[in-house]
Amino acid sequence: MFCCFSFFSKMKTDLELALECAINIYHQYAIKNPRDDYLSKSEFTQLMKETAKTFLTNTVPVRAELFKETDLNKDKELSFEEFTIVLSKVADDAHRIIHGENRCKPESN
Is the pLDDT of residue 69 over 80? Predict the structure, then answer.
């Protein structure tokens, strides 16, 4: 696996710290079932409720749709790679909020 930066440097950049934090949050919830390194739907729901309160509409239908949409191989679990899609969507939502844009605004083609 390719890694573009070292976690062993003395001074981590803000981006390195944010990435490390995202990885740690993923593992904090994925480890609830220690037999795997995946997020079940219930682990994902708990993660979203507890850590993404201001980003993405935090309702059951939206979380369920987000889980379904990002479970690319349809195995009813999210791998870390699939979870990065969730992070991308949360980052996009945060960006829209910061700029005062309508969070539900349809994308233009």
Answer: yes
